[in-house]
Amino acid sequence: MTLSERICKAIKKIPKGRVATYGQIATLCGNPRAARQVVRILNSCSESHNLPWHRVINRLGQIALPLGRGFEMQKALLTGEGVLVLDSGKIDLGRFQWRPRVVRFESE
Question: Angle of helix 35-45 relative to helix 3-13, nearest 10 degrees?
Answer without folding.
Answer: 80
